[in-house]
Amino acid sequence: MPEILAVEGLTAGYGDGVVLDAVSFGLEAGGSLALLGRNGAGKTTLLLTLMGFTRVHRGRLVWRGRDLDGVPTFRRAHAGLGWVPQERLMFPSLSVEEHLTAVARPGPWDLGAVYRIFPGLKERRGNPGNRLSGGEQQMLAIARALMVNPALLLLDEPMEGLAPTVVRELTTVIRALTAESGMAVIVVEQHARLALALTKKAIVLDRGRVVHRADSAGLLKDDALLQRLIALA
Question: What pTM, to 2 d.p., does this model score?
Fold first, then answer.
């Protein structure tokens, strides 16, 4: 499969502060990547940088052969980058359905498609998005990103604070997206074993640098190495 994303020597952060230091990796079309590391390693900053929210000091972000330098966030979304932020970012003035239709772009992911994978959202389509439960808000955040019809879905801590039943439901959905839809996925997740089970490749960040690259399945089997890399309890 051709490479759709190339991150080349990326040094980025906030203002003059540097969080990411010479990060490089690539992702092929339909590929899946677990982005692992301790708290503060730079995982969320990397996703924010892909979406254009940080300052790039050096290096390049190349999306489908196009340099993203200077490209605003909304144009990155239009180009095929779908982002599910850790904070979910529900708008109190919008209903569930309005959250979805406000960002919709042509493609296979429409209201019918997202309601099929998240039937609970259809039942609550007239409810304000910020009045949903935490699990429902996470489903809506993912559904909203799918309505952009992305080629790459960026998931930032999708399971954080959710009940086990919701985690299982979202795990099934994300696994189907990576296995069946042809969409590429990058997963940031503190539950490293869960992220590895959902993806094919993995990189580990420490203090803004890539310190390890692996196949997800192999790293998942090497418990001692995984413990050492991310200090799991």
Answer: 0.93
